[in-house]
Design a protein that fits this description.
Low-confidence stretches: none
Mean pLDDT: 94
Strand content: under 5%
Radius of gyration: 19 Å
Order of helices and strands: HHHHHHHHH
Structural class: mainly alpha
Shape: flat
Helix content: 55-70%
Largest sheet: none
Distance between the termini: 49 Å
Number of helices: 9
């Protein structure tokens, strides 16, 4: 009987705590989110193409799209703050490169340890940034171009790209009176 009650209580958690979806945001909020994401991703892509294309380096990785959602769509989120953005990507990239370096013969284990260890270290350092998990994963399953970067991946793209996104977030998110960024630096 106790086990059955425990299972029911556990399954009740799956229902969630609120009814309905998230509240709708204003059209102005949608516009500023769109503009910030457009300019942030354009800046990273533009700098990458202008300065690094001929060097066989990449500045754009998929996890930056998720960072753009946080920075420009939810700029007040604790997960979108500068410490989390920069620290989350850089730390996760380092973990991903280390896991690939040590475990490239077992890609499944490198991928698994990269993401789980990156999450644990982001928690420990108070730099939790969900796209950081993707940055760690990209280091272990990326193209030959990515894996060839080795530890350079930590600086370029995983630190430089977020720094560019941060500059755009500071500029764009503080234009309308309804927005403020950052909430906290450290």
């Amino acid at each position: 009987m106790k086990i059955e009650n425990g299972v029911r209580a556990y399954l009740r958690k799956w229902r969630g705590t609120t009814a309905g979806g998230p509240p709708r945001v204003s059209n102005a909020e949608i516009f500023w989110s769109w503009l910030g994401a457009f300019l942030g991703i354009a800046a990273v892509a533009g700098v990458g193409q202008r300065f690094f294309a001929g060097l066989d380096l990449t500045l754009m990785i998929g996890s930056f799209g998720a960072s753009a959602v946080l920075l420009y769509g939810a700029p007040r989120s604790p997960l979108a703050q500068p410490r989390n953005l920069i620290g989350g990507h850089a730390l996760s990239a380092l973990v991903g490169v280390l896991c690939w370096t040590w475990l490239h013969d077992m890609p499944w284990l490198a991928q698994t340890l990269a993401v789980s260890t990156a999450i644990a270290l982001m928690h420990l350092t108070r730099t939790l940034h969900p796209p950081g998990g993707a940055t760690a994963l990209i280091a272990t399953l990326g193209s030959a171009e990515i894996t060839r970067l080795g530890f350079w991946y930590v600086l370029m793209p995983a630190t430089l790209g977020p720094l560019i996104l941060l500059v755009v977030a500071l500029l764009i998110n503080n234009i309308p009176q309804s927005r403020r960024y950052p909430e906290i630096w450290f």
